[in-house]
Amino acid sequence: MYLDICCFKRPFDDATADRVRTEAEAVAAILDAVKAGTFELVRSPAHDFENERNPREDRRLATRLWLDVATTFVEATTSAATRARELAAIGFGPLDALHLAFAEQARARWFVTTDDRLLKRAATERQHLRLEVLRPDQVPLHSRGVNS
After folding, report:
1. What is the sign of the dihedral through the CA atoms of 32, 37, 38 and 43?
2. How far apart are CA 75 and CA 98, in angstroms?
3. For residues 100 and 129, what is the distance between their CA atoms, to the nearest angstrom?
4. How far is residue 96's CA from residue 105's CA, in Å, rounded to a whole number?
């Protein structure tokens, strides 16, 4: 599975809103499942690029530690760049398109995000994607076997 960088940031958001609290708890459960070997987590250069742009050092360092539990790493490739351009051409933002391209390159089953705009675009363009786009609280944590 591939977590969009916004998932790693969700625990820092105001948890008084039910959705934020639910998603933050789901992200924590996903990371626990990765640590337990239930799921594989993908890490890409887009994660590191986006995380390093965070001006809040505490959040940047915490996110880096969470990213360190990743078990699958993808490299920047020409094919990922080409795919990102294709996804951007159908309406995904450039960074979202890059994350999606890396997730597809890793053959992730799920791309997990809290970004409503990205979720909406993914639902509209579902037929053009090679994976399922979900919110953290939609990930079926009780799946059997190791999934990415």
Report:
1. positive
2. 12
3. 8
4. 14
Q: Which of 20, 95, 8, 22 is nearest to 58 (CA)?
A: 8
pLDDT digits (tens, 9 = 90+) for 107-143: 999 999 999 999 999 999 999 999 999 999 999 986 5
Over residues 11-70, the pLDDT tens digits come to 999 989 999 999 999 999 999 999 999 999 999 999 999 999 999 999 999 999 999 999
Find the distance separating the first CA and the last CA of the chain, reported in whole Å. Answer: 4
Q: What is the DSSP letter of 89?
A: H
Classify burial at 142, counting beta carbons within 10 Å of its beta carbon; exposed 0-12, middle 13-18, buried 19 or more.
exposed
pTM: 0.92
- C-alpha atoms less than 13 angstroms from C-alpha of 128 in its C-beta half-sphere: 18
Do residues 131 and 106 lie in contact, with contact meaning Cβ atoms separated by under 8 Å? Answer: no
Report the DSSP beta bridge partners of residue 111: 2, 133
